[in-house]
Amino acid sequence: MSNLTPMMKQYMKIKKKYPNTIVFFRLGDFYEMFFDDAITASKELEITLTQRDCGGDKKAPMCGVPHHVSDSYISKLVEKGYKVAICEQLEDPSVAKGLVKRDVIRIVTPGTITDLNVLDEKSNNYLVSIYLDDIGIGISYVDTTTGEMYTTEYIGNKEGSYAFVLDELGKIYPSEIIVNNSFMQNKKFVRSIETRINPFINLYDDNFITQKDWEKLILSHFNINNLNIIGIKDKIYSIISTGVLIDYLYDTQKSSLEHITQLNYYEPKEYMILDINTRINLEIHETIRSREKKGSLIGILDKTSTAMGGRLLKKWLEQPLININEIKKRQEIVEHFVDDIILMDQVKNCLRGIYDLERLVGKISYGNCNARDLVSLKISIEKIPELKNLLLQSGQKNFIELAMIIDPMKDVYDLIDKSIIDNPPISIKEGGLIKEGYNQDLDELKRASIDGKQWLAKLESKEKENTGIKNLRIGFNKKSGYFFEVTKSNLNLVPDYFIRKQTLTNSERFITKELKEIENKIIGAEDKMIEIEYMIFQDIRKRVKNETYRIQKVSKLISQIDVLNSFAQVAYENNYIKPQLNDKGIIHIVEGRHPVVEKTIENEMFVPNNTYLDMDSNRVQIITGPNMAGKSTYMRQVAIITLMAQIGSFIPAKEANIGIVDRIFTRIGASDNLSQGESTFMVEMNEVSNIIKNATKNSLIILDEVGRGTSTYDGLSIAWAIVEYIANEIKAKTLFATHYHELTELEEKIEGIKNLTILVEERGEEIIFLRKIIEGSTNRSYGIEVAKLAGINNKIIDRANEVLHQIEKKHNFAIDQKPDKLDKQLSVDDYKKEYFIDKINKIDVSKITPIEAINILYDLSEEAKRLKEKA
Ligand code: ADP
Ligand code: MG
Q: Is there a contact between 235 and 153 (Cβ–Cβ < 8 Å)?
């Protein structure tokens, strides 16, 4: 260390403070990285690794990126899961004495990145802070680009805390989380978060956390004197998680973060809860297969015109409402738009001209906005009076109420309009930003510089005449300023008062006293102009920043109008209707459709289906029917329609009355989770266990072929017991699709269970799917027919039919009877006795053929062997 160069010593000192980051060390026009940072970065960014002398005879690995394109490199590293500490020169190197002062001015992390080039404009980028102990958990999160901050907490045992945080994380989908030691102790849980969400994880030490006065930090950030103002007075867990979050932000952003103006406390129970599996299974945000927005529910619903609206729609889908009046408020506005298509279009066109106000405000607060951002803000604000007028003119009470609270922000508009030119350059440090007439000093300097150009022209023609040099010309370059240029052939005409400055191949350059005087005036004026323009810009930026809260308020209203306008457009284009709502737990859908499938099937028409579920005799529906008939589609359709109704959207149906549900649960298909080290069946049972624990009579449960991941008897028995339990104990509305047709017997046994099946038509060897749900059941799965449709060759199909036949013959009895045994809780001995008696009783000795007799004898002896083994 001792023989390091002074600069290297400075680097080492800074690096030591930021051990878990890659330090971008500013050296002139470059950011350089050294040692391990350089090795990592050169690999990740695919840039050349070089070396630099660092004192003595030591060399340090080094790589660098030009400062003006650094953003993309920083974003690339952050996206790959690194943190980047940006170390700047804090003084002008040309005037600094000795070593230039340097320090880290910001740490860019996955959850705090503000580079809008890499962020999805219609998604929030969240940083989450979690504090967990034995009694409770606090969760707080922020989007640093928009300034939104939220918090919630849960008091209860650890198991409850884990379920709570998993649901919330599934909703928030953070790119980075901050957690305490206790949280990290549950390795399995942390691993499951990593595989599902994969956030960057930071650890805060419990000792550090318990020592700090978080309340004080929060009060000072929001500039308030009582936590009641932001609704977290007695929320001790929220206070800690929020405090840690703010602490981390100050630590990394090193700015005052004035655009984080509010903390929103919420209780998850105020909304419909969707656990992470349900979100995935219902393909709300992306498809399961390709993980694309196209083909997901939001892909259909998102016709928003602004980025803010897009983000709000996402939030609404994550938190459907349970309060009927609030839903109705949304519905009414959607209805107004649907009833007045012209207004709907006009509002849409107006919204299209509005930029991402929330993120613009964020940029302004961060201090990294330029004049163009202010112009974008101005252009957006310009649209607001138009929007206001459209709503006022509609004559609708709801619209007028909305319009009344929209702040047209004329003062902010005027401020920018008066001062900033309409097409400013990107750079704010080279002048050319400010309009004439805004600042007198600036205008005078501008005149001086224009006048200066005229003086130069005059001087040029004067000296041309004096000297007789016809091609005498005044030139300029940055290094030597203004000069007279005289070509070789005319050198003999140069007078004595010309002072030689420079000799070139074909010409020489001179200055005169007079020229120098003009130059001083011009260059002085230009430097001053740039300086004044920069100051004016900073002043305007600050004044706009003071209006942050107002701009945030108006952008909130705009995003709401945008989402409701989008709902209307989607409803209009796809023939959706406004559902009625009830709190009686009745879900009645007439000719309901699946909003995504109806758009994706190509050669077929989508067949609508009716649904009736209630809290008594139609609680549970067992749906049997062939493969590919449309069972899964139907069940998802019911869940999605209910979800859509509860966010205030119209729905794909002819008529509907939707009973509000508190949660939707789904267990669909065999989603494999082998990467988590669990078998499919284990995952399936975990999910079912979660449903059983958390469902209430007001929930909607979708179970699709539960019990499939194990042997037939096991699976059937478990499915049977689960349905019984849900129907008798939980009493939640449930749709259960299954190939265990034995389950249809439950209809007879439990009040509230109904059987449904999907119509198919058999034509010779083929089956035709009619897609119509009817009451009743089927005991055929048509798996082999479906395999045939899929193109499996005849040899296999014929053989499968043969095998099926044999198996059915052999096991018919056992499969059919097994649930009954369970039901009556028979002992193994009883079971043995009944099996044999029953089998023998069934034989009609007068009709049996010798072969059948041998077959039965064979079955009996096999079963006897099996039972003997077991006993
Ligand atoms: P199952 O779960 O019974 O095996 P799915 O619900 O997966 O069947 O449906 C299989 C396919 O049938 C779907 O991908 C879709 O293309 C089509 N389908 C399902 N329901 C309908 C319907 N109501 N109308 C038209 N096509 C449908
Ligand atoms: Mg299915």
A: yes
Position 553: which residue type?
K
β-strand 84-89 against 22-27: which pairing, if any?
Answer: parallel
pLDDT at residue 849 tops 60 = yes
CATH code of the domain in which 59 resides: 3.40.1170.10
- Same domain flag for 18 and 135: no
Q: Same domain, yes or no, for 499 and 475?
A: yes
List beta partners, residue 761.
Answer: 768
**771 touches ligand 1 (CB under 6 Å):** yes
Is residue 664 within 8 Å of 272, Cβ to Cβ?
yes
For residue 607, the CA-to-ligand 1 centroid distance in Å is 9
* CA-to-CA dists, residue 539 to 433, 435, 437, 651, angstroms: 13, 14, 16, 50
SS3 per residue for 477-546: ECCCEEEEEEEHHHHHHCCCCCEEEEECCCEEEEECHHHHHHHHHHHHHHHHHHHHHHHHHHHHHHHHHC
The amino acid that residue 329 corresponds to is: K
How many structural domains does the chain have?
A: 5
In angstroms, what is the span from residue 628 Cα to ligand 2's centroid? Answer: 7
Say which range, 9-13, 126-130, 715-719, has the weakest mean pLDDT.
Answer: 715-719
Query: Is residue 652 annotated as involved in ligand binding?
Result: no
Domain that holds residue 760: 580-781
Q: How many CB atoms lie within 10 A of CB 159?
A: 9
Query: Does residue 803 lie within any of the structural domains?
Result: no
Q: Which amino acid is at 798?
A: D
Model pLDDT for residues 531-584, shown as the tens digit of each residue: 999 999 999 999 999 999 999 999 999 999 999 999 999 999 999 999 999 999
Q: How many CA atoms lie within 13 A of 678 on its CB side?
A: 19
> Both tokens of residue 608?
């609508």
The reply to whether 136 falls in a domain is yes
